[in-house]
Design goal:
Elements (H helix, E strand, L loop, with lengths): L24 H17 L2 E5 L8 H12 L2 E4 L7 H5 L14 H4 L15 E3 L5 H4 L3 H14 L4 E5 L6 H9 L2 E6 L3 H12 L8 E8 L5 H11 L13 E2 L2 H4 L15 H24 L1
Parallel strand pairs: 1-4, 1-5, 2-3, 2-4, 5-6, 6-7
Helix pairs in contact: 1-11, 6-7
Length: 288
């Protein structure tokens, strides 16, 4: 059965609205069908990581969980997190229903928050900042993620950087996705994250993000050199996501992949995101 949230992203059928010549509706429909079929049967843990804020990590995690009908677990404890994007305030989150509850209440079945056009959410909580310093707590939260992923798809959005909690989640992952704007600072940050263990779990998919110009050979060669020492990295880069104003100006709680009414700019952004989502999910199909 297709997960509840995935049903909101429907295939275009005839009679169709007037179609812009520059938009590939057939590709969009093919991607939507692929995602629906994948989500109907898939299980596993996808961890989304990035070294610094502002690289699109939370946006990718939010859209990934929304499109797949996965539960989104927020391992962040700061502003700009998936919890705030979803519309919740950390200070009002029920501790038992948060990611921290995976450690503080072992054996307790965490009940995600649900809302229209949003992924199911296990929110972050301020107490995660303290738990991150406790290795046993981090392992317990990661074990809770693994247990949850036995019965459904789980997407974990992480706090920026390779802290103890992110490392523990990565080690339990089936796939790791890392959105990377191919700028000098972000590629240096990726180098550091790789040294700190970003590629120590499931296959790592690098998604070029916030791309404003065609990818140059110089940047791609540099990225290839950075990734070369790590055999767990998927060698084919994920499809790039451009720096669309749809992402830059967006402040609503709905996932772009789940919006029922969308203008042409939103549809183009959705198409790019779905391409990247398929790339992130492919290692799970190989593993299956």
């Amino acid at each position: 059965m297709v997960p509840r949230m995935a049903l909101a992203m429907t295939v275009t059928t005839d009679p169709a609205p007037p179609r812009p010549v520059t938009f590939d509706w057939d590709e969009l429909n093919r991607l939507v069908r692929w995602v629906h079929q994948f989500a109907a049967a898939a299980r596993g843990l996808i961890v989304v990581g990035g070294d610094k804020g502002g690289v699109g990590k939370t946006t990718v995690a939010y859209e990934l969980a929304g499109a797949l009908g996965a539960v989104l677990v927020d391992l962040d404890w700061t502003g700009g997190s998936a919890t705030y994007k979803w519309g919740l305030d950390f200070e009002r989150v029920n501790l038992a229903r948060s990611a921290a509850g995976l450690h503080l209440m072992p054996g307790h079945a965490v009940r995600p928050y649900r809302g229209p056009s949003r992924p199911d959410l296990v929110p972050g909580h301020p107490v995660l900042e303290n738990l991150e310093r406790d290795d046993s707590a981090c392992r317990a939260i990661a074990a809770g993620l693994r247990e949850l992923a036995r019965t459904r798809l789980v997407v974990a959005d992480t706090h920026p950087g390779m802290n103890n909690l992110t490392r523990a989640a990565v080690r339990e992952s089936d796939v790791v996705a890392s959105p990377v704007p191919l700028r000098s600072g972000e590629m240096r940050a990726l180098t550091k994250m790789l040294k700190d263990g970003l590629a120590s779990g499931g296959p790592l998919v690098i998604v070029p993000n916030m791309i404003r110009t065609p990818l140059s050979k110089r940047k791609l060669d540099r990225l290839t050199a950075i990734l070369e020492p790590y055999p767990n990295v998927v060698r084919d880069l994920g499809n790039p996501i451009s720096a669309s104003t749809v992402w830059e100006d967006r402040d609503g709680t709905s996932a772009v992949t789940l919006q029922r009414r969308a203008g042409i700019d939103t549809l183009r952004a959705r198409l790019e995101m779905l391409r990247a989502i398929v790339d992130i999910c492919r290692p799970l199909t190989v593993a299956a």
